[in-house]
DUF1569 domain-containing protein
Amino acid sequence: MNNIFDLSHSKEILVRIDQLMQSAQPQWGQMNVAQMLAHCSSFHDIAMGKSHSPRSWLGMLVGKFAKPIFYNDKPLPRNMSTIQTIMIVDKREFEVEKEKLKQSILILQSDGPKNCANRTHPFFGVLTSEEWGKGIYKHLDHHLKQFGV
């Protein structure tokens, strides 16, 4: 399974982000492309400990058992529910959010997995750095496919 901490995988994601166009329309979901970029950056902030999102009651009940659904080679389902605190609904500037996300990925890559070790995911609970690395890659892949790249 691909992992954002693998240099070749993070480079591949960065190339795909550069292929995004401001005019890109989502194949599913509510967010426009700039909002999606901000959403992905916000997810990274949770992984890196820059922000915190409380555990959902559903996550507390079933999150531990649902981890295998997220950490496998199958694509994420379309229109999957999102963490409410990182659901972006306000207007965002495409180029600003694009650059912010790219910088976030570069920081993840340079800091390495140790920065994400044992941080709490709002649904799945405490994750290892390997789980974060695979989950971040899979989340980015999901949203880039959403916008055709």
In short: Helices lie at 7-19, 33-47, 57-70, 94-111, 129-146. The mean pLDDT is 92. The first strand starts at residue 119 and ends at 121. The domain at 7-146 is CATH 1.20.120 (Four Helix Bundle (Hemerythrin (Met), subunit A)).
